[in-house]
Amino acid sequence: LYPYSKFYLRSIKKAVGRYWNNYFSTIGLVGMNEMCRNFLGVSIVHPEAREFALKVLKFMREKIADFQAETGNLYNLEATPAEGASYRLARKDVERYPGIKTAGTVTSPYYTNSVHVPVNYTNDIFEVLEHQDELQIQFTGGTVVHLFLGESVKDWRIVRELVRKIVNNYRLPYFSLTPTFSVCPVHGYIPGEHWICPYPHSEEDLKKFGIVKEMDEDELAKLPEGSYILIDEHEEEEKEEAPFGGLILQLDGL
């Protein structure tokens, strides 16, 4: 990228003698939620943890201002995406500090990005907005709150009114709206969140795409008709896990 940068920034170099004079160095954070869980014993959604996160962000802003005054360089505080770092840093911490609290699983740990609430914490987007609003305005660089609607959007006017309400009542600089949908290997796109496809499946489809799972009669009664078949224990040992679809189930005691 440097040869391209040299070409596109040549006018800045000519004017001030440096290529990067108008560009910021970014400082961010990752895993505030897990930090609160480890040191405060509560997640970032707790009022005490949220207040602490706010203090950390304000402290970082003050230090960044000091760095700028000392060096003459530009710095900003950003909610860095950290897609790869969130996993890599958590994995290294688990190796060094067994028992540390992370998101994810023991084999695939990760840190929650920035100061966001835990994944799947709530389906109430306004609860997320209330929690995140004051935190988000502390960032001086890029930041975004992703709002998952939990259902498909059938009328664009609803989205328009929702955006208007958010903009008029909150100060956070950026947000995104994500309609939720599911994908079945047999039926394709399905509006809304479905862990089990609500449509009937043939026995052939279930054997091809289903997953093996033990379930009691009460749980079974809640499943859509045609979304499962019963199998014997010896069949379960031969069945491998497959993508989302109907379930091939074995009932406890049967």
Provide the spatial order of strands within the biggest beta sheet.
9-11-10
Silhouette: elongated
The oligomerization state is single chain
Alpha-carbon distance between the termini?
63 Å
Beta-strand content bin: 15-25%
Low-confidence stretches: 239-254
- Round the Cα radius of gyration to an integer and report it: 24 Å
Mean pLDDT: 85
What is the total domain count? 2
Helix % is 40-55%
Structural account:
- With 254 residues, the chain is α/β, with parallel strands linked by helices.
- It folds into two domains: 141 residues, no CATH class; 61 residues, no CATH class.
- It is 41% helix and 17% strand.
- The chain contains ten helices and eleven strands.
How would you briefly describe this protein structure?
By secondary structure, this protein is α/β, with parallel strands linked by helices. It contains 10 helices and 11 strands. Strands 9-11-10 form a 3-stranded parallel beta sheet.
